[in-house]
Write a structure and sequence with these properties.
This protein has about 450 residues and is α/β, with parallel strands linked by helices. The protein contains 15 helices and 12 strands. It has a 9-stranded mixed β-sheet with strand order 1-2-4-3-5-6-10-11-12, with helices on both faces. It has a 3-stranded mixed β-sheet with strand order 8-7-9, covered by helices on one side. Strand 11, helix 15 and strand 12 form a beta-alpha-beta unit. The radius of gyration is 22 Å and the shape is globular.
Length: about 450
Amino acid sequence: MDEAGVQCGEVQVPLDYSRPRGRTITVAIARSKATDLAHYAGPLIFNLGGPANPVLSTVPEARQGMGETGARFDIIGMDVRFSGRSTPIDCGWPASWLPRSAGADRESFDRMVTLSNDLASRCARVNADLLPHVSAENAARDMDVVRAALGTPKLSFLGYSQGSYLGAQYLTLFPERAGRIVLDSAIDPNRPGVASLRGRATAARHEAALREWAEWAATHDKRFHLGSTAGQVLRTANRVYLAAARTSLRVGPYSVDDTVIPGVIANLLVDDSEENSLELAATLRVLVRAADTGSAEPTPALATTLAGHLTGRDSAQRSAATAVLCGDSQRPRNVKAHWRDVEAARAEAPMFGPLSSNITPCTFWPHQPRERPARINTGVPALIVQAAGDVQATVEMGQAMHRSLTGSRMITLAAARDHGVYLFRGSECVDTAVNTYLVTGDLPAADLTCAR
């Protein structure tokens, strides 16, 4: 037990659930016990998406963030199989593909083909025995092993982004054991895994978000000098992108090309907070300086981002995330088809089309999914929360989850560009509605739209 009163432990689960008495792996969990025992509501596992984002260290923050509502639950963090402190997958990657773009031309796309093939090959050499068993469906089965170990008949769940699909799998596989289920920034359950990252609608949302940010930046031209109109700011961003396509930009110790810049920008469009808007302005100023003078020093935030893209610092987490993304969906293996998709997407969204249509290691993955994921179609109650302007999990994705979970209700936060709404946005309307459901177990009588 640590100083925050969090208990840590491990649960042994089958590597292959078709052979329950065979080889086992370890799933790490952490528990912060309920403090309001008079209204005890059982255990609640939370998941921060990624997929495969480690969560054990964030249990105290979850406890604090959920306040009086969380006091009724044992708050459980679970590092999904092969992530964090669980039995790991680490392919020894020297760089990352996520989020990387196919860039501005065929040469850039070919570099991504080479990188994706290399990363997949490294995983095949190191983890060939584990890769067939990486999926949200198996992680949902692991969750039920945890539930049984805790000795409780029901398990509640709070999942964000890719974690929404994990929660939907649990609802489908174990409907009678589902407690109070909240799926925030949900993906389309009919397009899980790496398919959830692809799509022209996502690229169009990113382009619209960049225009919205450019309008804000133009009103601060005396401070940032990126352009006095939105059009000028957008041309500045495009100039940097095309400069990086011609010659990689030197940013601190990093060589930044056109496969990197769209992902760097997209990361800072994930919400419409002033903090991200300011950081995007600072980032673009660094890139302009690098394009104009030959080199520039990154901001601390940009240095961290580039280290994640261009070094092996996050190899273990990104290896696990990729294994889940590849394990949850069938992948086309035709490189020419990928190139056609990139060209078509670029015509519609020049900056972000090649990002959302890029080739990935899943194209070269050594194992196709061993089994098709369980189809999400159940009437078990659940609450879905979505920001109308989310550029990563679009509102249409949340609506698809809503249709598949026929017993669900949906809360939409209007005119907001957030990925992760409950507890993160600070919307009293959303937080009150979610807390009411978690406290009472009763869904709203109808779908709800909250004003920004």
